[in-house]
Amino acid sequence: MKKKPVVVVNGLVRKDAMAYLAEHVEIRQWTEKTVMPREILKEWLKEADGLWSVRPLTVDGDLIKDAPNLKVIAQAAVGYDNVKIDELTAAGIPYGNTPGVLNETVAELAFTIIATASRRILENVTFVKSGRWAERPSNIKGFDLSRRTLGIIGMGAIGLAISRRARAFGMTVVYHNRHPRQDDAIYRTTYMELDELLATSDVVCIMAPLTDETYHMCDAEFFKKMKSTALFVNVGRGPIVDTEALIEALKNGVIDYAALDVTDPEPLPADHPLLSLDNCLIVPHIGSYTDRTRYDMSILTADNIIAGVHKQPLKCCVNEEVNYEKTKMDMETALAELKAAGVSLSDFED
Ligand code: GLV
C-alpha cells in the first residue's frame, strides 16, 4: 500500500482541522505546550512532505534545507511576516495562507475596539462595578464617531470592510496606501498622503502588513503629526509601532488614546509599561478569533496542505510562481487515496 504523505505540525491546532487533515495524510505533531525546538523540527522535516507552520516560528531557507521531500508549507493566517517567501520560492516550495475568510471578522474586531475606546466602555464598566453609580452619575465621557474622520493606513480588503462599518456610524473615511486605489468612487473613500491623513484623522487605524518598509513606521514623529485628540488603533502587526514612542505619546498627551489588537512584544509580560496606562485598551491579538472563522482558516490551511503534498495547486498561494499546475492524479495515487479513506472499489459495484 502506498504510504500516506507525512505532514509535520509544529504546535497545537484545533482538533477538527487535525481530524480532517488526518483523513488525507499522516500527521506528526508537536503536542507539548512549549515551543518546538527548531533543531527537532528540522530533524522531523527530513522525512516530511508538508509543514503546517504554527507561530512562533521563522520559516526560511535554513529551516527546510535538509527536507528533500517537502512540497508545501501553510499557516492558518493571512499575514506571513514570519516567513521568508523569497527563500521558499528559491527552494520551489509553495506557501499557503488564508486570505478572504477572515476579512469581515477582523473588521468587526477593529470596529469593536474603536467603538469601545471612543465611548470609554471599559472605564464605565469598571465604574458601575465599583458600586459608585448609586452615589453619582458617571463623569467618564466618550467622544463621538459620527461626523468624524477615520484614517486607514493599509487599505486592502479588510480596510474596506472597516470602512463600510465606519460609514454606517456616520464617519468619513480616508486612507493611505503605497498607491491610490482605483475604486474610491465605489467605496466613498479618499486617498491621502500620510502626513495629511495624520493631520486630518480623528481615528488612525493601522491595517498594513509588517514589512521592512512598515517596521516602526509609527514613531515619535508619526504621533506628533496626529491630532492630540485622536485615537490610535493597531490591528496590523505590533512591530509597525515603536512601542516606546507610543507609550511616551500616550503619557504626554501627544495623542489621546490607543486601542491595540497587536503589540510588540507579543504576548505582553504582566509588568509591561503599556499595561499601566489608563488611556490604552489592549486585546490579545484576537482579530480573527471567532469559532467560525478560525474553523474556516484551519480547513483552508488543511486544504492547502492536502493539495500541496499531492503536487496539486494550493487554493491560496502567496508565491504563485511556484504553485503547482493542475494535473490529473495517476491511477496508483487515486487508488491509494481511496484505500486510505477506507473505500474499496467493490463499494461501487451494483
Ligand atoms: C492574523 O494576524 C493573521 O495574519 O491572520
Mind explaining what this structure looks like?
The protein is α/β, with parallel strands linked by helices and 350 residues long. The protein has 2 domains: 6-98 and 291-326, Rossmann fold; 103-282, NAD(P)-binding Rossmann-like Domain (Rossmann fold). The protein is 33% helix and 13% strand. The protein contains 12 helices and 12 strands. It has helices at residues 15-22, 38-45, 85-90, 103-118, 121-129, 157-168, 184-187, 194-200, 220-225, 243-251, 291-309, 331-340; strands at 6-9, 26-29, 50-53, 72-75, 95-96, 149-153, 172-176, 189-191, 203-206, 231-234, 257-260, 280-282. Helix 10 links the parallel strand 10 and strand 11 (257-260). The model has no long low-confidence stretch (mean pLDDT 95). Glyoxylic acid (GLV) is lined by residues 77-79, 102, 287-288.
Short overview:
It is built from twelve helices and twelve strands.
**Hetero groups bound?**
glyoxylic acid
In the residues, how many domains can be counted? 2
CATH C-level name of the largest domain: Alpha Beta
Distance between the termini: 26 Å
Structural class: alpha/beta
Strand order, main sheet: write it out: 8-7-6-9-10-11-12
Global shape: elongated
Point out poorly predicted stretches: none
> Major sheet, described briefly?
7 strands, parallel
Count of DSSP helices? 12
CATH fold-level label of the largest domain: Rossmann fold
User: What portion of residues belong to β-strands?
Assistant: 5-15%
Q: What's the number of extended β-strand segments?
A: 12
> What letter string, H or E per element, gives the SSE order?
EHEHEEHEHHEHEHEHEHEHEEHH
Query: What is the annotated CATH architecture of the largest domain?
Result: 3-Layer(aba) Sandwich
How confident is the prediction overall: mean pLDDT? 95
Cα gyration radius (Å): 24 Å
The percent of residues in helical segments reads 25-40%
CATH superfamily of the largest domain, please?
Answer: NAD(P)-binding Rossmann-like Domain
